[in-house]
């Protein structure tokens, strides 16, 4: 790695902050038996027809499960630095979906956020973590990359590279 110790500290700090963000979000979903995506997605404005599909009785339980357990999986992956490339990619997709769901074009969530809000900022932090191979900075990706079965399979290697 060519990063200085300071830059590695920044990368690690961003990874921990994003891990906390996803784990804290999960605490409101996994431990709340009444949590469902229906309440949130039924109030979308700009792309209501797109998100209404996910609130149907056939899809809502599956989407609720994926959202509820996706948050802790993304958060734990970032926390331990294992498969950061994969979890950060899913995190970006999730954040962009939330950004669209909060949109009342051109405002996001309220009149204080014109087009850009924290979802976009967080997504860009995750892009930075992918670009900087954040799982290799005091994380398990560097260890996993050295495992023989991962070195022999390019598909597995891509998950931790």
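^ Assign residues to that structure.
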């Amino acid at each position: 790695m060519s990063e200085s110790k300071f830059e590695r500290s920044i990368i690690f700090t961003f990874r921990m902050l994003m891990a906390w963000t996803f784990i804290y979000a999960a605490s409101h979903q996994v431990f709340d038996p009444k949590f469902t995506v229906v309440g949130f997605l039924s109030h979308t404005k700009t792309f209501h027809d797109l998100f209404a599909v996910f609130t149907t009785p056939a899809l809502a339980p599956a989407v609720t499960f994926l959202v509820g357990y996706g948050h802790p999986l993304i958060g734990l992956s970032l926390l331990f630095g294992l498969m950061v490339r994969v979890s950060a990619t899913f995190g970006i997709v999730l954040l962009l979906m939330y950004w669209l769901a909060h949109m009342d074009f051109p405002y996001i969530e309220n009149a204080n956020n014109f087009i850009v809000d924290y979802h976009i900022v967080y997504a860009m932090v995750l892009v930075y973590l992918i670009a900087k191979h954040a799982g290799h900075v005091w994380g398990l990706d560097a260890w996993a990359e050295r495992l023989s079965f991962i070195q022999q399979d390019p598909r597995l290697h891509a998950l931790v590279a």
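The chain has a mean pLDDT of 93.
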